[in-house]
Amino acid sequence: MKKELLLACGLFLALPAGQGFAEGKAYVIEKWSTLQQQQTNEMKPFGFVEEDLTYYEDEPNDSLAKANQVETGYFLEGSSHNQSVNNGKDIDLYKFTVNEEADYSLAAFTENQKEQTLTIRVLSSDGTEVAKSTFLNEDGYELQSVESVLTPGSYYLEVTNSYSTELNEKYGIYHDVIEYGQTFERLAGDDRYDTAVKISQDGWFDGEAETAVLATGANFPDALSATPLAYRYNAPLLLTRQASLPSVVKNELIRLGVSQVFIVGGTNAISADVERQVKNMGIKVTRLSGSDRYATSVKIADEIGADAGSVVVATGSNFADALSIAPIAAQLEMPILLSRKDSVPGSVTTFMNNWNVEKSYVIGGVNAISDAAAKKLTGWQRISGADRYATNSKIIDTFIDDIDPFYTYFATGTNYPDALAGSALAAQYFSPVILTNPVKANTATKTTVQKYMDETYVYYILGGETALPQSAIDQLFEE
């Protein structure tokens, strides 16, 4: 969840496409305001509160020796008390550590919207100024900002507010570092259902998701078109057993504060019992299903539409091609329609006609969707490689100007559940999902990873060691 805040601040050098200053500022303020509202009738805490992702100021902290110890990657909340006892100037100090040379960014704002009166200084371990905040006013949003390069060591944040006189003026700060070189983080649970929950927890705060998408964890066809639906509703994509809702998934729906669930697929994929279990939680359920996998993909497409005028068409006989493009299709607001190899289903053609589709991206080679079938599609363009891994690489190369590999997700190319759940999270950050062979790395995959590695800061491995061992990841970086 910390990375959501990192992107939200909108201050880092490698900001994903579509994440602007205004959106980031609004997002951080919204998060901080939510925390404030939750505490309206509570005594203000001191120290670190994990569920808030916040360090709360603990007075006195007006000297280096008394500085509050904090970590980067979290909110800081404090208040200014400019009173006679401190000569009208309250100084708040926070101490943090940088382990490796890193880009450092900070966003700070006040409750009274007097950001121009707030001053933040970054001090070295001996109190020497290293950097000082700059007041920014962009797109109608005001902010105190720090961007600097910090070498390993201890640092202090010094916070003052010239506006506050005899007042308790609250301020909020978010700061983080991007250490040079790539880092790796594995998102994995005890099984595929728990892994999908871990992925959801990484991307969505408590109470943040009004909607969730529920797909079967037992078979792929009905789930292949679900990622653009999840993206449309800012929803995580969770998995369920056919006959019963796993307890970890139920608990995740509660944590997220979900009030609406889309079930993708018919009762053969997700039973009526599961639907009842979700409804009994007080959650509205909408099932999107058709007579087969092709009609189900159209039902999902009907829900999200094709306003961008483009669609993705992938085989319904395998999962790799659809999942390779799933996060990109979602980001570009393109529904994923499934087709047979030699004929495009009539329901797919009808959907394209109804939405005046002008562009069709056909994913995979002629063994997946033949030329004869593809030629029935409007404005078709094939994206394919020699195999599923080369096709995955071709997709990333084709859409590299529309995505950002700042965060890159790895998933096994031999099974679908981890890539499916991860694609919904990747879409939130305009990130690619790279499918890789869990035993021996494909040459095309290695080439893609190494081509964009200078633009990548964090690699997320989806699934446990059994699904995608570290040895398979290490091969991708070998010369």
Please describe what this structure looks like.
The chain has 479 residues and is α/β, with parallel strands linked by helices. The chain has two domains: 178 residues, Jelly Rolls, CATH 2.60.120; 293 residues, no CATH class. The protein is built from 14 helices and 24 strands. The protein has a seven-stranded mixed beta sheet. Strands 3-5-11-7-8 form a five-stranded mixed beta sheet, with no helix packed on it. The longest helix is centred in the first third of the chain and has 18 residues. It is elongated and about 80 Å long.
How are the secondary structure elements laid out?
Layout: H1 2-8, H2 21-38, E1 47-49, E2 54-56, E3 68-69, E4 74-81, E5 92-98, E6 102-110, E7 118-123, E8 129-132, E9 134-138, E10 141-150, E11 153-161, E12 168-179, E13 183-187, H3 192-203, E14 211-216, H4 226-232, E15 237-240, H5 247-256, E16 260-264, H6 272-279, E17 284-288, H7 293-304, E18 310-315, H8 320-331, E19 336-339, H9 346-354, E20 359-363, H10 371-374, E21 380-383, H11 388-398, E22 407-412, H12 417-428, E23 433-436, H13 443-452, E24 458-462, H14 470-475
Parallel strand pairs: 2-4, 3-5, 13-24, 14-15, 14-16, 16-17, 18-19, 18-20, 20-21, 22-23, 22-24
Antiparallel strand pairs: 1-2, 4-12, 5-11, 6-10, 6-12, 7-8, 7-11, 9-10
Helix pairs in contact: 3-12, 4-7, 4-8, 4-12, 8-11, 8-12, 11-13
